[in-house]
Design a protein that fits this description.
The complex is a heterodimer of chains A (397) and B (373).
Chain A lengths: L1 H18 L13 E4 L7 H15 L4 H18 L3 H9 L1 H4 L6 H13 L3 H14 L4 H13 L3 H11 L5 H12 L5 H14 L5 H17 L3 H13 L5 H13 L3 H8 L6 H14 L4 H17 L6 H11 L3 H12 L5 H13 L7 H10 L4 H17 L1
Helix pairs in contact in A: 2-3, 3-4, 3-6, 6-7, 6-8, 7-8, 8-9, 9-10, 10-11, 11-12, 12-13, 13-14, 14-15, 14-16, 15-16, 16-17, 16-18, 18-19, 18-20, 19-20, 20-22
Chain B lengths: L1 H11 L10 E9 L2 E9 H8 L8 E3 H6 L1 H9 L2 E5 L2 E15 L2 E12 L5 E6 L10 E8 L2 E7 L5 E5 L5 H18 L1 H11 L4 E4 L2 E4 L3 H27 L7 H20 L7 H23 L6 H30 L3 H28 L7
Parallel strand pairs in B: 1-8
Antiparallel strand pairs in B: 1-2, 2-6, 4-5, 4-7, 5-6, 7-10, 8-9, 11-12
Helix pairs in contact in B: 5-10, 6-8, 7-9, 7-10, 8-9, 8-11
Classes of the chains: A mainly alpha (397), B alpha+beta (373).
């Protein structure tokens, strides 16, 4: 009994330790802070949202109010990276969401929210329907250009950019085409074009400038020109907009060029957003820093929670996590392959090549190698990986 | 300009979702007509739905949360329906706690549901936050009769029905049998008691002390009688205790068990009972039965299958015992002529068992902590 009791306790402890389950508890003091909200209820953006929400609550059938609120929520989702707002946006559009057909504004918004969840095929169907009714809907055109681009359908994306060009500012029109050109073998001339458009666009807002600078930085980085990329990144960061996509891109750049300590300094207080937590963890892994174990466990928990609810939008990042942090290349390859079915951007290609290389299975990389040939993408990192895979193939033969 | 801005934002938003979306974690345990629940709901979601941060400083404190406990329970429980076999259940909050998940703090609502009847099908209707956030999901863990399953509630699957299969009698029986085997394996005190009685089985007392038996058969019957007596005895008290006929304080029975091991081992060094050791086995077996009973009580006895569990557990203990004996006896018989057996294993082993059990006795009887195992 004596032994079995101790064994029981030990077993219990082991189980708790392995699953990392914290038990519910009773806080000690009333002033114990349980949660820091990302923004205070009285901050201006939250006040604006509350005002719009109250207005819609008074007139729930007012389409204009509902679409405005949904759009506002979506902007908030993009700024914070918090998918809750995407759900709130959908709720605001509830009376029209399932209509056959919904009003065109709802149709475009529905496509926007669906692409956020990577439901690309239904989003494209919504957009086709919207553009049939109004061929010059700029939101529908721009969104469709982006979805086609993510799915590596460059011709379709180019067609949408061409239709969009006369309807939007020069910077946006140039950016739309430049983004495609940058991926299809015209990176050099594209950089000049985009640079010039940026200089001319004196009235462009900081968000637009940041977006263009970020794309320019990525192009220079893909061409292995770290000095130029750094310059663009610095200018983008100097605009003072905290944007998690910019920080993630810059962190990846720093990691590529062996500067993990700067990543830790940049991201150590931004662990809430999963993509930033991943970059921080990779940097900590590179230098053997202290927070590694805790951050690794938190990431594993978040990916597990996403899987539990059937969310696959993390696959590309989870593949990186599996390969580099967990050293599980088989799982990394599975995730990267599943992700490649949905998204085909350079970083999606890269995780697949890296996993295939770690497993020494060049055949698994073939779909990405084919894409590289077809698109004629210029990417120093992808080319190096492809070269390593090719020599592996030669050795094997 | 609006269009342009949206275009930019869309480009940024095609990455992974940066935060964890809204989920709640609901654990429901069903036993008879009683349903227990533990519901973890994110404070961020509650803040959006009913407002928790009353002073608007962006921090949610325990005091602010505590002040809204009544509202939280009313809000959440109004959005969860529980029924057993079509008979609705009354839900009632029983306690409020806090927990942290990877994405922040959660209010933990403990509740119970009283149902009009026990049933074989549980129906749950979940609609928390679906009106505010159609992307919200309720992640359910349902526990019933030792089995756990999971399900996801979304607006499309807001009502779900779970057939609760009664675990098959055979599976239940085997389950308790396995527990019995496991217990004898890790219950060192029982094993050592048995070994103390078995060690002399291949020897017979003579005027010059112990000498080896000549044939296997008498040794086998000796062992057979001891094991049977021990089994019969502990089965009697195990049954009586499990059925609630007799109940003794654990400290008393545990101390007595340790003492029985001491005495059984001492009997090998200073023989008192040489021929009728099966009687010793029987007498002390009665005490060991109480020890088994407390294990069985910890496992939880199914009210509807008490006898089944009892017989299963007991047979499991016997199987475990037989396994030990079937390894011990051939080895002991083979070694019985050797000095190693008679000096080292028999005397040394008995002395060691005696010492160890003596420590256990002191620990259990006087509530000390001498050994860290």
């Amino acid at each position: 009994m004596f032994m079995s009791y101790n064994a029981g306790i030990l077993l219990g402890l082991l189980m708790v330790a392995s699953t990392g389950v914290a038990a519910p508890y009773l806080p000690r003091a009333d002033d114990e802070v349980l949660e820091r909200l990302p923004s205070r209820p009285n901050d201006p953006p939250m006040r604006e949202i509350r005002r719009m929400r109250d207005a819609l609550a008074r007139e729930p059938q007012n389409l204009g109010l509902a679409v405005a609120l949904a759009r506002r929520y979506f902007e908030q989702a993009s700024a914070d990276g918090d998918p809750r707002y995407v759900g709130y946006a959908q709720a605001a559009l509830k009376p029209w969401w399932d209509l056959q057909p919904p009003p065109i504004e709802v149709l475009v918004m529905r496509a926007t929210l669906r692409q956020y969840r990577h439901d690309f095929s239904v989003a494209l169907a919504d957009l086709a329907q919207a553009l049939e009714r109004d061929p010059s809907d700029t939101r529908a055109l721009s969104l469709r250009a982006v979805i086609h681009l993510v799915q590596a359908d460059y011709d379709a994306s180019r067609r949408d950019c061409a239709r969009l060009a006369p309807l939007v500012s020069e910077l946006i029109a140039t950016g739309c085409v430049a983004f495609i050109d940058g991926l299809t073998g015209r990176a050099g001339e594209t950089q000049d074009l985009l640079n010039r458009a940026l200089t001319r666009a004196t009235d462009a807002g900081p968000e637009q400038k940041m977006w263009v600078l970020m794309r320019l930085a990525e192009m220079a980085w893909r061409l292995n020109d770290p000095r130029l990329a750094e310059e663009h990144f610095r200018r983008a960061l100097a605009l003072g907009i905290t944007d998690s996509f910019l920080l993630a891109a810059y962190a990846d750049f720093l990691l590529d060029y062996g500067r993990p300590r700067e990543v830790i300094a940049l991201l150590k207080d931004r662990t809430r957003a999963d993509p930033l937590l991943l970059r921080l963890t990779l940097a900590e892994l590179a230098v053997g820093a202290q927070g590694l174990r805790e951050h690794q466990a938190a990431l594993a928990d978040r990916y597990a929670a996403a899987r539990l609810r059937g969310d696959t939008t993390h696959e590309q990042e989870e593949s990186r996590f599996s390969l580099q942090v967990l050293a599980r290349p088989d799982e990394a390859l599975r995730l990267a392959q599943s992700n490649w079915q949905v998204q085909r951007e350079p970083r999606d290609a890269r995780v697949l090549l890296e996993a295939a290389l770690a497993l020494r299975r060049p055949a698994a990389a073939q779909p990405v190698l084919d894409w590289m040939k077809r698109s004629r993408i210029e990417d120093w990192f992808l080319e190096r990986l492809a070269g390593q895979l090719a020599s592996l193939k030669k050795d094997g033969a | 300009m609006r269009a342009a801005l949206l275009f930019l934002l869309i480009l940024f938003a095609t990455g992974a979702q940066a935060h964890k979306p809204s989920d709640s974690y609901l654990t429901v345990t069903v036993a008879g007509s009683g349903v227990q629940g533990q519901w973890h709901i994110a404070l961020r979601d509650l803040e959006f739905a009913i407002g928790i941060d009353s002073n608007g400083d962006g921090d949610i404190t325990w005091g602010e949360l505590r002040a809204r406990h009544g509202d939280i329970a009313a809000y959440a429980l109004a959005r969860l329906t529980v029924a057993l076999d079509g008979g609705p259940c009354q839900t009632r909050a029983t306690d409020h706690l806090v927990d942290h998940h990877s994405d922040g703090a959660y209010a933990v609502l403990l509740f119970e549901a009283q149902c009009t009847r026990a049933g074989s099908a549980l129906e749950l209707g979940y609609s928390l936050f679906f009106d505010l956030d159609p992307q919200h999901k309720g992640l359910l863990r349902l526990e019933h009769a030792g089995a756990t399953r999971s399900a996801i509630f979304s607006p499309e699957t807001a009502r779900q029905r779970f057939a609760m299969e009664q675990p098959s009698r055979i599976a239940q029986f085997l389950d308790y049998g396995r527990e019995g085997v496991w217990h004898i394996w890790i219950g060192f005190d029982h094993v050592l008691f048995l070994l103390s009685l078995l060690l002399p089985a291949v020897l017979i007392p003579s005027s010059q002390g112990w000498r080896a038996v000549e044939r296997f058969t008498p040794a086998f019957w000796d062992v057979f009688k001891i094991v049977t007596a021990f089994t019969v005895a502990h089965s009697i008290t195990l049954s009586l205790a499990a059925l609630g006929v007799i109940s003794l304080p654990t400290r008393l029975t545990e101390s007595a068990i340790a003492l029985s091991v001491v005495l059984a081992a001492l009997n090998n060094i200073f023989p008192l009972f040489q021929r009728r050791r099966w009687m010793v086995a029987f007498a002390f077996g009665l005490i060991h039965g109480f020890g088994f009973a407390s294990v069985l009580a910890d496992l939880g006895l199914p009210r509807d299958a008490l006898l089944l569990a009892l017989v299963g557990f007991n047979l499991g203990v016997e199987v475990g015992q037989l396994a030990i004996v079937s390894v011990f006896l051939p080895v002991a018989y083979k070694l019985r002529q050797t000095m190693l057996y008679r000096r080292v294993i028999f005397f040394g082993g008995s002395a060691l068992i005696c010492l160890l059990a003596g420590v256990w006795f002191a620990e259990r009887a006087f509530n000390l902590k001498l050994l860290t195992l």
